[in-house]
Amino acid sequence: METSSMEERNLPVFELGPCESGYHLGFLVGQRFAKQIRSRLATDLIFQNQLLPFAKTQQSQPLLRSLSEANRERFPSYWDELLGTAEGSGVAVLDLILLNFRKEILPFVPKTTVSLEADAEDCSDVLVVCDSMAVAAHNEDANVALLGHTYLIRATLSSGLSFTAYTYAGEIPSCAFGFNNNGMAFTLNSVPPSEDEIVASGIGRNFISRDLLEATNMDDALTRIRSSGASVGHSYNLIDIRARRILNVETASRNRISVREVQETPFFHANMYLHLQIQQVQDENSLSRQKRAALLPKQTKTDFLSLLGDTDDETYPIYMKGPTLYTLCTALIDLDEKTVSIIEGNPKERQVTHIFLMSSWINAD
Q1: What is the CATH classification number for the domain harbouring 55?
Q2: Which domain of life does this protein belong to (predicted)?
Q3: 116: Cβ–Cβ under 8 A, 6 or more apart, which residues?
Q4: Is the pLDDT of residue 210 over 80?
Q5: Which of these, 25, 39, 152, 226, is most buried using a 10 Å CB contact count?
Q6: CA 239 to chain centre
Q7: In which band, very low, low, confident or very high, does the pLDDT at 111 lie, cut at 50, 70 and 90?
Q8: 185 touches 239 (CB < 8 A)
């Protein structure tokens, strides 16, 4: 077993593997990031004020039990990662269940005067595949509680598969973006289905995206999503670097799915369903970003980064600086250069803090 770590700016990178099992992977991550995991649990107001009190009620028990059983049965290795992370960091398994399934639990938390914090993860993506470039650019936006509570996991499994995943403290990799040595990558956009579209005790989005980290190609990634049995909806930007393709995939419960191929017209996606017909909550933040993005130039990579760094709308900027929502970083995936760059700070400034050369890492055909 070889493990190493390095600090670059604010975002730590942890390299580990080959890992003998999911539990082993989770344990090493939990051990390495125990401080960040404990800090997040202490400061995350959604966890403290909504999830934890709900978990102490009798009303929550059937939901938590069935969620746990369904996901453990479907993805036993990923469930073991969660258990290993809890053991390695010395925190309660229940706490990490609540973090990993917060999107699947919060719709069932009674709306009380305590429930004031919004669990928003308002990411923005702009994507294109044309003759001159093939690029996916992604703002990773989250509640300000996540500041200082994220890290990059670069793991090698016993199978030989390697992945890199931007990871929230206490959660399995990755609810944000990642890529693997099969040349597959993804970014994610949260979407807000109405409450009657949510199926209790389905498969959690964290477990579905963890499964995508092991996809072999675009067809395999789509198969994993189509058969997922998700509890709540999500939008996936699937990137096949070898095939030079990008798909936007919108999903909902009961295995409803809509697939859109990204081509020469730049495609912007915020946090509303754009092509899957479904009842959804109207999100003013997302609608505002969608309108603003439509006005901005999208001809070059520089345009894409300027768009994602736009702060013209003071109420709902594309690049967020608080007080509730914050752009944690920006990822730029270039399918032709076969690079993944991470920018901390406004992407307009193009201050790349991490760059990964996928061409030296992708498995040979």
Answers
A1: 1.10.439
A2: Eukaryota
A3: 49
A4: yes
A5: 25
A6: 14
A7: confident
A8: yes
Query: In the numeric block, which tokens belong to residue 162?
Result: 């390697």
Residue 8 is predicted with a pLDDT of: 38
- Domain assignment present for 302: yes
- Amino acid identity of residue 193, one-letter, is P
Mean pLDDT to the nearest integer, 11-40: 97
CA distance 177 to 167: 8
Domain end call among 50, 77, 108: 108
Residue 2 lies in a domain: no
Residue 64, classed as helix, strand or coil, is helix
Does residue 147 fall inside a structural domain? yes
Gap between the Cα atoms of 39 and 17, Å rounded: 26
- Please report the beta strands in the chain, taking only residues with DSSP state E, as ranges in sequence order: 2-8, 11-19, 124-129, 134-143, 150-157, 162-168, 177-180, 184-189, 234-240, 245-252, 256-261, 267-269, 325-334, 339-343, 352-357
Question: According to the model, what pLDDT value does residue 16 have?
Answer: 97
**Beta bridge pairs of residue 283:** none
Residue 248 lies in a domain: yes
Residues 96 and 46 in one domain: yes
Q: Which domain does 300 fall in, by range? A: 124-361
Strands 150-157 and 11-19 turn out to be parallel
Helices (H) and strands (E) in the chain, counts: 12, 15
Question: Do residues 99 and 47 make contact, with C-beta atoms less than 8 angstroms apart?
Answer: yes
Name residue 326's amino acid. Answer: Y
Instruction: Give the C-alpha distances (Å, rounded to integers) separating 348 from 40, 214, 296.
Output: 29, 32, 13
